[in-house]
Amino acid sequence: MGTAKGRRARSDARELATTMPPDPYRGALTDPYTGRPTATPAVGTGLSAAQPAAGAGAGVGLGSVPDYSRLPARNRTPAPAVLAGILAIGLAAVLGMFGLLLLAIISLQDEYGAPDRSFYRGSDSNYLLLALLNFALGASLAIGGISFVTGRLGGRLVITIAGWAVLVVCGFWWLQATVNALVPLFLAAASLGMLALAYQASVTRWLGVLPAAQPE
């Protein structure tokens, strides 16, 4: 128990050390020649962007402002979120390819199959339904993955629903004797990896669901 609490404390300390301080000049107009904030009051600070805060240290001249452009970029995308987005887009491409293959099978059977295909109407409709399902899942994963990487919580929700749907489809294909077992296993592993990466603690804090680590 103590070891787990120590690891959590070290993780919070690392995150706190890399957390960007809030910019009180955010939202202020910028001088196009100097790139510095103008005298427009900053939102929620009650101070002019060109006035130094009370109690500023010696050596800071009147009207000088901190150079926030030299600080690291705020809210940088965590590596697990980037990997989850890449997996989502990769799964979308694979599912789209499977949908095209199913449509190609229907077309080839219709062209070069038996002259009377009334007996195969049921299998053709099943293939068409699976192709449409693949296209829908692929589009959801692509749109959700791009939205998730840009920092939207709705993107994670979309890839979560699509990821679980992919797992259900993989379970269905696993039970079919006509499909190589490696294909659903590969897709299921990629989907599980995407879901695991998308719900890392650093990603959840980055999305704003969990509060950032606070100093004690």
Task: Map the helices and strands.
Blueprint: H1 2-17, H2 79-112, H3 121-149, H4 153-174, H5 182-198, H6 201-206
Give a verbal description of the structure.
The chain has 216 residues and is an all-alpha fold. The chain has 2 domains: 1-47, no CATH class; 79-205. It is 57% helix and 0% strand. It is built from 6 helices and no strands. The protein has helices spanning 2-17, 79-112, 121-149, 153-174, 182-198, 201-206. Helix 2 (79-112) packs antiparallel against helix 5, helix 3 (121-149) packs antiparallel against helix 4 and helix 4 packs antiparallel against helix 5 (182-198). The longest helix is centred in the middle third of the chain and has 34 residues, at 79-112. It starts with a helix and ends in a 10-residue tail after the last helix. Mean pLDDT is 75; it is low at 41-66 and 70-74.
Mean pLDDT level:
75
What share of residues is helical? 55-70%
**N-to-C CA distance:** 20 Å
Number of distinct helices: 6
Order of helices and strands: HHHHHH
Keywords for this structure?
216 residues, 0% strand, mainly alpha
Précis, in short:
This protein is mainly α and 216 residues long. The chain has two domains: 1-47, no CATH class; 79-205. Helices cover 57% and strands 0% of the residues.
